[in-house]
Amino acid sequence: MSDIMVVKRDGTKEALDIDKLHKVVFFACEDIKGVSASEVEIKSHIQFYDGIESANIQETLIKSAADLITEETPNYQWVAGRLINYHLRKEVYDSYTPLPLREIVEKNVARGYYDSELLTSYSADEWETLNNYIDHDRDNTIAYVGMEQMRGKYLAQNRVTGEIFETPQVAYMLIAATLFGEYPAETRIKYVTDYYDAISKFEISLPTPVMAGVRTPQRQFSSCVLIETGDSLDSINATSSAIVKYVSQKAGIGVGAGSIRAIGSPIRNGDASHTGVIPFYKMFQSAVKSCSQGGVRGGAATLYYPIWHLEVEDLLVLKNNKGTEDNRIRHLDYGVQFNKIMYERLITGGDITLFSPSDVPGLYDAFFADQDKFRELYEAAEADKTIRHKTIPAIELFSNYMEERKSTGRVYLMNVDNANDHGSFDANVAPVKQSNLCCEINLPTKPLNHVFDKEGEISLCTLSAVNWGVIKTVADFEKVCNLAVRGLDALLDYQKYPVLAAELSTMKRRPLGVGIINFAYWLAKNDFNYQDIDADGLALVDEWAEAWSYYLIKASADLAVEKGAPSGINETKYGLGITPNQTYKKDLDELVPHVERMDWAGLREQLKATGIRNSTLMALMPAETSAQISNSTNGIEPPRSLVSIKQSKHGVLKQVVPGIHKLKNKYDLLWDQKSPLGYLKIMAVLQKYIDQGISVNTTYNPTFYEDEKIPMSEMIQHLLFFYKYGGKQLYYYNTYDGQGEIDVSDGTEAQLEAGAVDDEDCDSCTI
Asked: Of 108, 166, 415, 438, which is the active-site residue?
C-alpha cells in the first residue's frame, strides 16, 4: 500500500496513511458488538488505487462496512453510519469537531442556505445556550441508511455541486429554533431544547418538506394539498394552475374531479356536446408532471371520482398498460369513491346505475354531505327513465374495480360516508369530498373559479409522526404529543402560501396530521403479530391508540386556551365537544370492547368551553425515508424482510429492522401473511381514534392460494369487512409476484417484490 498516492481536497498528494485509516475504522467499530475493524479494512483495501482522492477513500470505507450488513451481522449498520458521520464532519467543518452553532448559522445565512430570521430571532446568549445543549454525539446513533438519507436528501446543500453545509444535529436544532422562534422569550428555549430532544432522539418523526426546508429560506412545508375542481372551464383552469404552484413546492396533490360532467352532456345551452372527463384528467396529469418537486423529481397526484359516474368503465382502466395513449392516463393514481348504497347493491345482487353528475342536480354534493339525501336523489333518478344513465350489475362493477386495483396496485378506494360520519367536520356545512395523494387526509374543499378566488378552498395538511417504538408507557405520550402539536401549529404561521385559497383555509381550520411510525417493532416488542392478533393484542392497540389520540386532542385544546381557536371551529365536531371515539362504527365493538380509560368527559367539556386549536390532529401516513433515519419500521406497515435493500436515486441502501437480535423471530413479515384480515382488524381499531384517515394497504401472497390465484370473492369480502368496521380509504394493493422493491430475506439472496415503492415514489406525502 505504500506506493499508493492520495490526492487531498486541496489537490496536493501524499502517501496513503494506513495507520490513519485504521484509527478511523477502529473509532467507527468501538463498543459495537459483532463487528470487526479488520473486516472493514480488508474489504476496503482491495479497492484502493494510486491517485485515489481522499473523499473516495472515505466512501470506500463506508461502502465496505455497508456491504457487511446482513441478518447475521446487522451491527455494521452502525459502523457505516459512524464512517459517514466522520466523512461528513470533515467535509463540512474541515475537522471532526463541529463549529460553534452561531458560527454555522452566520456562514449559512451568508451563503443563502439558512433563513436570516434565525440571527435576528435569538440573542447571542441564547445561541450560546443552544450551542452548549446540542449533542453532536447523537449523529453516531444514526444507522447507515439514515445517514445516507440525511446527506442525500435532508441536509442543507448545493444540489448542483453536492457541497453540504451542516450535520444532522445542527439541522435538528435549527428546525426546533425556527419553529419556536416566535414563542415568548421566557419559555422558548425550553421548547426549543425539548423539541430538539424529541426529534433527534426519534420520538417525533418529521416529513420531507420540514426536514429539508425548515431553517432555509423556503417556507412551504405542507405535505398534502387537496384541490377540488368544479364543472366549469374556469374552475378546471384554476385547478391546473394551483396544481403547478404546489407541485413546484414539493407537495403531493389530491385532486377531486368527480363533478365534471360526462361525455355527451350538453354545454352552452345545447350548442355543443361535452368531450367528457378524460381530456381534462389529461390536463391535470400534464400540470402534475410539468414542474418537478424541488428540482429533484416529477410531481405526484391521486385523482378522485365516484363509482357511479357515467364514464366509470373508461375511468377504471385509465391506469392499466392496455389500450393506447389516447384512452389511458397512467401518470396519475386514482381513488374511486363508494358509499353504503353501493355496498348494499353488491350484497343484495342488485345493480348500480351510472349518471353524469350534471344530469342529477345535487346528487354529487349529497354523496358526501347527506347520505339520506343522496339515497333519495339516486333512487328518484333511477326511477326517472328520461335521465341519461347506464345500469351495471354491482358484482360486475366491483369485480372490474378490484381487477384494476389488483393489476395496477394503484387504484385506491374511498368510503365517503365513513370519512364524513367519522371525521372532524360537520358534513352538512363542511363535507369531505376527497383525500390526498396517499389516502390519509380528510379535509373540506371548495372549487376555485379562478386562482385568486377567496371563496374557493384548497386544503393543506402538515404532517409528523410519533414513534411508538421508543415510547415506554402510555403516560409518555403526553409530552411527546404536546410537542408534536405545538411544533406543527407554529409551522402554519411561519410558512407561506402560494395560493390565497390555501392560506385562508389553513388559517380557518389549522389542520394537522400526526401519525405513527415503528408500529411493527412495537407489536414485536409486545409479542403480537399482524395476521394472528388476538383479543389481548387488539385491546393493547386500543389502549395505546386511545392515549395517543387523547393527548393529541388535549394538547390542541390547551393550545386553544393559550392562542385561541380558529374561526372554522364551528364547522367541526370538536367544537361541539365530540371526539373521534364517539363517532366510530359501533360494529367495531365486536372486535374490541369500548373502554374509556382517559378523562374524555373532562376533555369534552373543555372542548365545548374553549374549543380546539386544530380542526384535525391525526393521520396515519406512509413513512419511508423518515423511518429509515430513525431506524424504524415504516409507519403502521409490516416489514418486508429483516434486512431490506431500498432502491432510491441515492443508490442501494440496506436497512435492518430495530431490535433484530432479540426480536428476529417475533416480526410478522409482510409476505408471510396468508391474509390481510388481521392487519385490517388492527387498522379498524386504530381508525376508531383518528379524526382523518390511514394509508391502509392490502397485501396478498399468491403462493398461499390454490393455483396461486387470489379469489375475487375473497378480495371483495375484505372490502366489505373494511367498510363494516369503519375503514375510510385503501391505498396500495401489494402482490408478491417478483416485481418492485428489492428485499433481502435471508441475508444472501435479494428478491424483487411487487407493489412496493421506492422511497422516492411518494416523497412529498410520505414522511
From this structure: 438
